[in-house]
Design brief:
Strand content: 5-15%
Distance between the termini: 73 Å
Oligomer: single chain
Radius of gyration: 23 Å
Shape: globular
Structural class: alpha+beta
Number of helices: 18
Order of helices and strands: EEHHHHHHHHHEEHHHHHHEHEEEHHE
Helix content: 40-55%
């Protein structure tokens, strides 16, 4: 019998042909934990705004691995010493960086698991895989956690100009059709170098960095923080919270066994033993969509109504403002709702609520994007740039919103 060919090639719409560099990475990609990412959407509920945004975390992870290969090649060409083991560690770390995402990305983190972030679950998955693969992921885990002594390697995984951001901006722009988010990742990678163990961008690449930061700002306002995406994700979070509440009260809800487990149990990060991790690995977008299709006919008015909003794309009205919402107006909406909907006062917050969103394209407080000049001096990109708008991009912008049923507009 012929052995399996593990040096496969993916045909990616963003980068063209992507090669799997070695058999270990092939085996990691083939693992059920990673294959689950094919069933986890990259942009959550954004498909309700941009119909093409149906790409997955699997696409993104493979893309990140590919551009990490390009970054390693570039740095080696410029004389940066990266051993084969270190290169493999970088590839594995970026490949698995999002493996802990739950269904529809961030909705799970704010509903049926108790403040457990996907980065924490990613690390749990990596540790479990390290056991299965006899310690071959040890260096990748060190780099992922920022514990490896070569600091620039962590910056390639997690920083304000990492492989993760480079891929998701270019990929999400492509699939959503938001052209303003497109970036020149090839140019950015070619301009990378390492100085004093820190990742730097050569001075002639500063305009590409400026374009990158502007693109990130625009993608957040036009895609990730688009008002319809925002209200849809909040509704989904409220659906899962309502389902958990009803389950705790003894209501039997039709859903998959994996989703049922998380509805019946309070799960903290300390509870993620091997059994819980394996159960979490059974969850994907299909579980949530299937449950909502069933729950839209549930006798509970709140759960049923919220599910119908997502299934039929008849969402709550969302009004954005630069000012905090008026409390009197919000109370008026709540009182109106009680008069026309068969709900109790304690359930009004499922339908009428306020919130805020924040957008900051670049933070001077976080690890900076460093520009290295010809004299080898290093400056923060904001200080090195002659564009005043970069200073504006480093300021956090906050917008406030209120959500309520559209029927209240006419009452």
């Amino acid at each position: 019998m012929n052995p399996t060919n593990k040096l496969k090639i993916f045909n990616d719409p963003i980068y063209g042909f992507i090669t799997i560099p070695n058999t270990l990475i092939y085996d990691l990609i083939q693992h059920p934990y990673f294959q689950r990412l094919r069933r986890i959407s990259q942009m959550g509920m954004s498909y309700l705004v941009y119909p093409g945004a149906h790409h997955t975390r699997f696409h993104h992870a493979i893309g990140c691995m590919h551009i990490m290969q390009k970054a390693i090649e570039t740095l080696r060409f410029k004389g940066v010493d990266i051993s084969d083991d270190e290169a493999n560690g970088l590839l594995i770390a970026i490949l698995l960086h999002d493996i802990g995402h739950g269904p529809f990305s961030h909705a799970m983190e704010n509903s049926i698991v108790e403040d457990v972030h996907h980065e924490e679950i990613s690390l749990l998955f990596m540790n479990r895989l390290n056991e299965e693969f006899e310690g071959k992921l040890g260096l990748a885990i060190q780099i992922f956690k920022g514990e490896y002594h070569r600091k620039f390697m962590y910056e390639l995984i997690s920083s304000q100009l990492d492989m993760d951001r480079m891929d998701y901006l270019k990929r999400d722009s492509f699939y959503s059709g938001v052209a303003e988010g497109n970036i020149n990742s090839d140019r950015l990678i070619q301009m990378m170098n390492v100085q004093d163990d820190q990742l730097v961008i050569e001075e002639k690449g500063i305009y590409s960095v400026e374009k990158f930061l502007v693109a990130r700002r625009l993608m957040y306002w036009q895609a990730y923080l688009h008002k319809t995406s925002v209200v849809a994700e909040i509704i989904l979070t409220k659906i899962l919270k309502r389902a958990k509440y009803l389950t705790e009260k003894g209501t039997q809800l039709e859903c998959s066994s994996a989703l049922s487990y998380f509805l019946h149990h309070k799960v903290l990060v300390t509870d993620f033993d091997q059994t819980v991790l394996h159960t979490f690995a059974q969850l994907d977008d299909v579980d949530i969509m299937s449950a909502m299709k069933s729950w839209q006919f549930n006798a509970d008015f709140v759960l049923s109504s919220l599910c119908k909003m997502i299934i039929n794309r008849e969402l709550l009205k969302i009004q954005m403002s630069d000012e905090k919402p008026d409390k009197i107006y919000l109370q008026h909406l709540r009182e109106q709702l009680l008069q026309i909907m068969p709900i109790e006062a304690k359930d009004v917050d499922y339908f009428v609520f306020k919130g805020k969103i924040k957008n900051q394209a670049y933070s001077k407080v976080s690890e900076p994007i460093r520009i290295v000049k010809k004299d080898k001096s290093v400056e923060d990109v904001v200080d090195a740039s002659d564009q005043l708008h970069l200073k504006a991009l480093s300021k956090q912008v906050t917008k406030y919103f209120i959500c309520f049923p559209k029927v209240l507009i006419d009452t």
